Amino acid sequence: MPFPIHRPRRLRRTEALRGFVRETRLSVRSLIYPLFVCPGTQVKSEIKSMPGNYRWSVDWLVEECRSAYDLGIPAVILFGIPESKDEVGSGAYDPEGIVQRAVRAVKKALPDLMVICDVCLDEYTSHGHCGLIKDGEIDNDSTLPLLAKTALTQVEAGADIVAPSDMMDGRVGAIRTELDAHGHTQVPILAYSAKYASAFYGPFREAADSAPKFGDRKSYQMDPANQREAMREIALDLEEGADIIMVKPALPYLDIIALARREFDVPIAAYQVSGEFSLIEAAARLAWIDRERMILETLTSIRRAGAEIILTYYAKEVARLLG
Ligand code: PBG
């Protein structure tokens, strides 16, 4: 009897063999590229803590979308930086708001690129919270109609998918009802279902100038310590009509993705958020890590955990790396 009989290394000897038996593959077809849109024309202003990411005016946003589309990226998700903010986040549901104008322009230029809109008030409220304030607290039920209105104006502008990120209870149902009442029964909802109150959103808040002016988001976003609660949030969003669910952030929450993959038979998206991006960029600048390998390894891990769709600031980079 030769020893050892089992030699797992046999299948690791060459890249051809490794490619042959690989269990998980990254594909550009399942990536979503997040983009920030701001007022003005010919604006491309770099976000300091997210090198290589910009706030684009609508005209140049269209060109950035075109370059993503030409690389095979099927979808973008848009975040708006409005001209002005107020207590009730009017800019979010203004039919002429920054995101609504951006969607119209992008869909006109690139009808086959899927445009997803983030549904939330935080980029539009003067206080930076995702809901209305009542007696010093973030009020759930009075926020719901505004979120529904936001989604409706985005869809009427041409959005292909809406993605509520506010974490108010009942928002998926409120949005579904509003869209259906206006005949938009075919527009899917991608729900940020298990969204944690995370330090990893820091750079995004610089990008969107959306850090809360008082308190924090812990009364609506989830406690990072909780796993079972994530399953409950996902189940509720599915009951209310979510089509795709999301776990966010991604890499520190791979256990949540894996568990959701086992418990729910729906497409799962994961968001490699701004802080995950910036960690890699910062370490790469110090030459402490191999940037390209780390991009591919982190995204492969997110896929392996069970997410089929990934939102990543590296979407264009991955398209180039996978060539
Ligand atoms: C809320 C929203 C946030 C992100 C996406 N949608 C910020 C927050 O909850 O504070 C963060 C994304 C990222 O960090 O890349 N509209």
What's a concise summary of this model?
Helix content is 37%, strand content 18%. The chain contains 11 helices and 12 strands. Helix 2 packs across helix 3.
- Helix/strand structural class: alpha/beta
How helical, in percent, are the residues? 25-40%
CATH topology: TIM Barrel
- Average predicted local confidence, pLDDT: 97
Strand percentage lies at 15-25%
> What best-fitting shape do the alpha-carbon axes yield?
globular
Quick one: CATH class? Alpha Beta
Q: Under the CATH scheme, which architecture would be assigned? A: Alpha-Beta Barrel
For the sheet with most strands, the description reads: 10 strands, mixed
Total domain modules = 1
Total number of helices = 11
Which molecules other than protein and nucleic acid are bound? ligand PBG
What is the string of helix and strand elements?
HEEEHEHEEEHEHEHHEHEHHEH
**CATH homology superfamily name:** Aldolase class I
**Computed CA radius of gyration, to the nearest angstrom:** 20 Å
* Poorly predicted regions: none
CA-to-CA gap between the ends? 45 Å
Quantity of strands, as a count: 12
